[in-house]
Prior knowledge:
Blueprint: E1 4-6, H1 7-29, E2 35-39, E3 51-55, H2 63-81, E4 89-91
Helix pairs in contact: 1-2
Amino acid sequence: MTNIVEEKDFDMAYDQIKKELANYSKEFLGWRTYVEIFDRNNYGGSNGIELGVNWSAIGTVTVDNAEAFIKVLTKATELAKNFKYNGYKIHYSEEE
């Protein structure tokens, strides 16, 4: 049996972990990294939701910034891996 999540519930949970990651990034680095969480299956597509982590190159940084970046990347990995709707399919509500 396939698990189903309502679109609004997915959107709220997805937005929440993205905000959590952004705040975590600011806490450790004082600036926003380009580490982001995305659904690899086009928002639940035929294989269900599978969050992944994407990051842009940040160039050469200090050792301290590199260590902080690793913490942010690790946090993103944990959030994506433990997302409560991984494997679910999204039920899109019909607009009236």
